[in-house]
Known about the structure:
Blueprint: H1 3-18, H2 23-31, H3 37-44, E1 51-53, E2 76-83, E3 86-93, H4 104-120, E4 124-128, H5 139-155, E5 161-165, E6 168-170, H6 175-179, E7 182-186, E8 191-193, H7 197-204, H8 210-214, H9 216-223, E9 228-230, H10 233-246, H11 285-292, E10 299-301, E11 309-316, E12 319-326, H12 337-352, E13 357-363, H13 370-375, H14 377-390, E14 395-404, H15 405-410, E15 420-423, E16 428-430, H16 434-448, H17 452-470, H18 474-478, E17 484-485, H19 491-501
Parallel strand pairs: 3-4, 4-5, 5-7, 6-8, 7-9, 12-13, 13-14, 14-15, 14-16, 15-17
Antiparallel strand pairs: 1-2, 2-3, 10-11, 11-12
Helix pairs in contact: 4-5, 12-14, 16-17
Amino acid sequence: MENKEKVKKLIDLRVQAKLGGGQKRIDSQHSKGKYTARERIEMLLDEGSFEELDMFVTHRCVNFGLEKEKYLGDGVVIGHGTIEGRSVYVFAQDFTVFGGSLSETMALKICKVMDLAMKMGAPVIGINDSGGARIQEGVTALAGYAEIFERNILASGVVPQISAIFGPCAGGAVYSPALTDFILMTEENSYMFVTGPKVVKSVTNETISTEDLGGARIHASKSGVAHFRSANEQECIATIRELISYIPQNNLEEAPICECTDPINRLEDELNSIIPDNPNMPYDMKRVINCITDNGQFLEVHADYAKNIVVGFARFNGVSTGIIANQPAFLAGVLDCDASRKAARFIRFCDAFNIPILTLVDVPGFLPGSGQEYAGIITHGAKLMFAYGEATVPKVTVTLRKSYGGAHCVMSSKQLRGDFNYAWPTAEIAVMGAAGAIEVLEGRTIAKMENPDEKAQYINEKTNEYKDKFANPYMAASYGYIDDVIEPRNTRFRVIRAFQALQTKKLTNPLKKHSNIPL
Ligand code: HXC
C-alpha cells in the first residue's frame, strides 16, 4: 500500500469510527430527541478542544456471533478537552453501538480516561446512555464495571467526578454515577434504577412506569440521587459547564478566582427588614443569598430535594464558596433526615475540594416525631454534625434568626470550629423557643392555676422574660460564641472580609486512616 493510500485509509477509518453503530441507529437516536456521544462531547467542551483516544478499539467477544459484528471505538467515546480553557477528561457511552452496553474493552477505555484524569489532576465527566452489561460478554463485563467502581472510589476526593445521565442507566450500572460527586439528569429519556419496572412487577407485583420508578423528577425530588434536573441535554450540559467553573481541578488546588464586578461593600437595605416581626412567619432565604453573593448569582444543588435546607455555589469577591442555609419558607427550615444528608454531603464535597463554606442559620431545631426517629434522624443528624466538625476549610456562619438546641450546635457553631460566627440583631440563640421553654420550666405552676386570665398573664410574663433574656444574640456574644453582631444590610461586606482574613487558614485533623462518619 502506498503512503498516500495509508493516509486515506486512516481518514476512512476515522469517518467509519465517527458513525458508531451506523447512520440508521444515529437517526433512531435523534428521533428519540437524543444526541450522539460525539455530539454531546462537542457541546460540552470548548470548540475544537476534544482529543479523542482509543478510536480504534474493538471488542474481543466471540460469543453469539459477536466476532462478526465490530464497531470502531466499541460503544464509548473517550478523551480530553477543555471547559473555559481548563482541562477535563470525558467519556460518553455510545448508544448506537450495542445500546451503549458495557463490554470488557469499553470498561478498559473508561478506566484509561479515569487513570489519565487522576495522573493529571483533572475532573472526569461521564455521559451515561447504556443498556448495562453487554449480555453476550457475561462476566468480563461485570469485572469491567467493578474496575470502574474501584476507580470511582479511589478518585473520590482527589478529582471532581460528574455524571450526566442521558439515557438508560440500570442495574449495577447505576453505582458508578452514584459513587461520583454530582449526578445530572434530563426530563426525558433519562432514568436510573437498580431493577426496572418489569422486574419490580414480577417480584413485588407493583405496577409502575419507568418515569415514576427512576425518572429525573423522582431522583431530583424524592430519592435525592440526582443533584440537578434539566429540561434537555443542552441545558444539562450548560449546567455542567457552570458547575465546573465553581470547582478546582483537584484536591490540591483552589477553585478559579473570577474577576468581581460587584462592589464588595454593597449595602442591601432590604435585609434590615427581611425578618418578619412575627417569629413564626417565613421569608425566603434564597432572597438573602441573592442579596449578598457576587451579582446575585447562585448555582443551587439539589434544588428540589429537602427544600428545608438550601445548598449551592456562589462567589464572594470572585472566590467560589459553598453556601448551606436553612430555608424558613419550607417546613420552617427544620432539620430532618433528608436535609441533614443533603447538607452533609455538600459540605464534604466543599471540604474535600478546598471550597470555603458560608452557613446561614435560621433553624427551629430537629423535626420531632416517630417518623423521623424511625428513619434514623439521630444518625443522619450526626452526619451533618460530623461533616461540619471535620471540615477544615474556612467556615463563616451568620445566624439570621432562630438557632435552637442541637440544631444550633450542628449548624457550624463556634465549637464545631466555625472560624467567624456572626449574628444579626434578630438572632435568637437558645436551647429552645420561648413557648416550649416556659412549658417545661413553668408547667407545674401553670397547671395549678385555676383562673384563666391569671394563667394567661403569667405565661405571657414568663415568656417575655425568657425572650428578653434569650431571644437575642447578645447572650451568645457575651460568651464569645458569636464574634460580632452585624447590621443585616452590611452582610455581604462582612462575609467577604471574613473570608479574606481566612485565606491563610491552616488547620489539619489528627492523622488517621480515615474517619468513621455515621453512615
Ligand atoms: C447487548 C444490548 C444491550 C445489552 C441493548 N442492547 N442492551 N446489547 N447487551 N445489555 C442492544 C439491543 O440489542 C439493540 O441492538 C440496541 O442495543 C438498542 O436496544 P433497543 O432495545 O432496541 O433500544 P430501546 O428500545 O431504546 O431499549 C433500551 C433498553 C433495552 C431499555 C436499554 O435495550 C434493554 O432493556 N436492554 C437490556 C437491559 C439489561 O437488562 N441490561 C443488563 C442489566 S444487568 P440492535 O442491534 O437492534 O441495534 C447489568 C449488570 C451490571 O447491567 C452489574 C454491574 C455491577
